[in-house]
Amino acid sequence: MHDYLAAYHSNSYTPKKKSKNRKLTELEKEYNKALAKESIIIEPINSKLKILKILSCKYRNCPIRYSLIVNLLSAIYNCDLGIGIATS
């Protein structure tokens, strides 16, 4: 599963898991803690966006259009929070 995820999306990270015969090292535990600190920020946002049916169900249309929809919904959510779009 981990290799599939890495091949599917290069920016995806998964926590390290212990096996039956091996415990996690301190470095792996620190990695998991750092990953959890980052994911706790985004999880409430994901849950609020998944209220919308288009994001909570399987999308069977053009992937480019789905990307556009996700970007638009994210922009609307950011606008609702008062986070503007950065202009240079």
TrEMBL record:
- DDE Tnp4 domain residues are 7-78
- List cofactor names only: a divalent metal cation
A single Gene Ontology MF term assigned here is:
metal ion binding
Identify the InterPro entries for this entry. Answer: HARBI1_dom
UniProt keyword annotations, A-Z? Metal-binding
| A Pfam family matched in the record | DDE_Tnp_4
Work out whether the entry's keyword set contains Metal-binding.
yes
> What is the name attached to this protein's record?
Transposase
Origin species, per record, is Microcystis aeruginosa PCC 9701
